[in-house]
Amino acid sequence: MVENSVGDAAGSGQVAEPDAMGQYERRELSEAELEAQGEAEAEAQPVSYRGTDFDVEGLVRRLARREIIIPTFGEVDMEDLETARFQRNFVWRKPQMDKFIESLLLEYPIPGIILVQQADKNYLVLDGQQRLRTLAAFYEGMHGEGEFSLTNVADRFKGLTYRTLSKKQRLTLNNTFIQATIVQTDGSAESLDAVYQVFERLNSGGTQLTPHEIRIALYAGPLVDYLASLNATPTWRSLYGPRSPRLRDQELILRIIALYVTAASYKRPLKQFLNDFVSTHRDAVSLPVQRLYDLFVSATRLIQDGPGRGALRRQGTLVNAAMSEALVVGLMRRLELGPEPTPANVARAAEKLAADDELTPAVDRATADEESVRTRLAKATSAFASIK
């Protein structure tokens, strides 16, 4: 089942925080996002990888020379990266950083890292961001605006910086080996799909990435930037509310555009359908981007001026993704047929649609099923087809 109410925290046991308009945006993965991650792919892609060891000092040198790159989540126009934006913002707190350095000094075993080797032989960090950032910061001697000195450690290490380590301690740290798994990709859709599946299986603990955050990491490019521009349009922002810190608003736009363009080919799992769409149209040149932009803006404006933001919310203040995509896709189809309808007529059609008992299962339960998608899009299209 695909996410139904965006940010719904009910019964999930996850943390939700109120936004400026009283909505709740889940900071962790929702139950539906976890379910989507666990849904089997139609075909599991093989991946090529090998193992190697890096000494800590060598890792830090490679980081400084950008031979190992830690992509920053949400960064744009990273033309030197084949697969940008794997990682979310740095999430370790200072005590975790201190404990990691202490573990190395004590020669304790530590987890390995996973890197993606690009065609240019540079590496991207797939797993191990926090450990590598901690090492880079400790060697540089800076944490935030101040000096990186160890505080949350045993007494004999308290106050130490990399510069003040004893010769023996420095050699211990420099010469510690960290195991690395190197995943290889040639930049093709097939290899990126394999990396997506690897990353999804590694995506546990800490602040997990949503399916869409992984998606835009792997398929960075003009289409992802285009989705960001649609996400910034005033009418959409008015309808949806404040920006989702987990990009659920942007994923909903992708669902709308992908279903408008290729609804006939939809099949679950939804995440694979969206991945395939982004992969196929990654450079955006095969899409009528300006026409889609105009239709999206006009449809969201008509909803805003007609039934209002409540039309996207079946209960309470939470956005219902299935209902939202049906409304916007249905209106975009109507706008393709002729003159723009009046907001009042859109409001009446939306009200009638919301009261349709046959629509309820398609927007409230098993919303990723092929039949549910066909039903809600067909009903929304029919509801708006004849209005003036």
- Class derived from helix and strand content: alpha+beta
Mean pLDDT: 83
Share of residues in strands: 5-15%
In the predicted model, the low-confidence regions spanning at least 5 consecutive residues are 1-24, 73-89
Strand order of the largest sheet: 4-10-6-7-5
Number of helices: 16
How many separate domains make up the residues?
2
Detailed description of the structure:
With 388 residues, this protein is of the alpha+beta class. The chain has two domains: 5-29 and 210-385, no CATH class; 48-191, no CATH class. Helices cover 47% and strands 11% of the residues. It has 16 helices and eleven strands. It has helices spanning 31-38, 56-64, 94-105, 129-140, 167-174, 189-202, 211-218, 222-231, 234-240, 248-262, 270-280, 289-305, 321-337, 343-354, 360-364, 370-385, and strands at residues 5-6, 16-18, 24-26, 48-55, 68-69, 113-117, 123-127, 142-143, 146-147, 177-184, 319-320. The strands form four sheets. It has a five-stranded mixed sheet with strand order 4-10-6-7-5. Strand 6 (113-117) and strand 7 (123-127) form a beta hairpin. Helix 3 (94-105) packs across helix 4 (129-140), helix 10 (248-262) crosses helix 13 and helix 12 (289-305) packs across helix 14 (343-354). The longest helix is centred in the last third of the chain and has 17 residues, at 289-305. The two termini are 35 Å apart.
